[in-house]
């Protein structure tokens, strides 16, 4: 009898230990998924933890900068209070063109997620000693006399992360074609006319206005500011989806020169390397911008539904202006979901992300996730549970 009692106690202890271990693993898993330094970071769970969505972009941008260039270097580029105030205003005004309704997809959640995705890409690049992390900016003679110890590489990374945060600033929730096709009917088209009906040009201009208004770059000299805006313009302009093929061609060019020995750079080829860096910066922000098909399947579906919801709103507005145009809304209909997503996902994997992963094999998990999501779209299993 005592033997059975002893055995019972042992079983109870083991059971409790197993339950505790599972609970501990669950907590660790939850923390790891909320933590920004995670390939499968879930921004919606993270936002519920920090309680204040207007702090989303600031939290992730500040995290990225601290980990990529360090707090000390960051403090030499920008004052912390200015960074905080700028990103807070940026978040509050992100969808000011659609106030009081926030866009389903092109909103501060998307902007914050692009910052986090770009951070992951850059952190992996840094670990692999990429030439994109070299200081290749050619300084002018008068600039060298003014400041002798300037590290433009850190400024480049700062510029990229800020660009990601700003890349869809004041997005009105419709695409370029919509404003071009209905320029005589949609009031906002009058604003976009100045920018050749290109939202990317508008986002850059509006972000630059806010940066100057908030005096974000107060610590930088004229040369540094010029470099910052050059990178921001390249990065934001490069998010135009019509440039998919151009980006892919640039990735192939990069792959052909990636074996250049960074230690043997000299004045003859350093400007060439800097040009390549700038082109690759453009590709990386573009990759972060269209990263939702590279996520885990459940997360990919969540984001795709939001894109389709925004497209549905646009379709309804098109129908309002032209009754001959049918309203095209997926509304979590699996068949329509597949029809809407499959052409896009095929295009990005075959045109852009395939050479992207070939150039940067340590980011190959992106293409593996796309393949899984593509397989789901080509199958018949239920997508929306």
Report the total helices. 17
Given as residue ranges, the uncertain stretches (5+ residues, pLDDT < 50) are 23-31
- Note the beta-strand portion: under 5%
Compute the number of strand runs.
0
Q: Give a quick account of the main beta sheet: strands, pairing sense, barrel closure.
A: none
- Secondary-structure element order, as H and E? HHHHHHHHHHHHHHHHH
Give the CATH H-level superfamily of the largest domain: 3'5'-cyclic nucleotide phosphodiesterase, catalytic domain
CATH architecture of the largest domain: Orthogonal Bundle
Radius of gyration: 24 Å
> What is the structural class?
mainly alpha
Give the overall form. Answer: globular
Estimated helix fraction:
55-70%
Question: How many discrete domains?
Answer: 2
N- to C-terminal separation?
Answer: 51 Å
CATH topology grouping of the largest domain: Catalytic domain of cyclic nucleotide phosphodiesterase 4b2b
Instruction: State mean pLDDT (0 to 100 scale).
Output: 87
CATH class of the largest domain: Mainly Alpha
Give an overview of the whole structure.
This protein has 17 helices and no strands. The longest helix is centred in the N-terminal third of the chain and has 33 residues, at 2-34. Helix 3 packs antiparallel against helix 8. 67% of the residues lie in helices and 0% in strands. The termini are far apart. It is mainly alpha-helical. It folds into two domains: 50-252, Orthogonal Bundle (Catalytic domain of cyclic nucleotide phosphodiesterase 4b2b); 290-385, no CATH class.
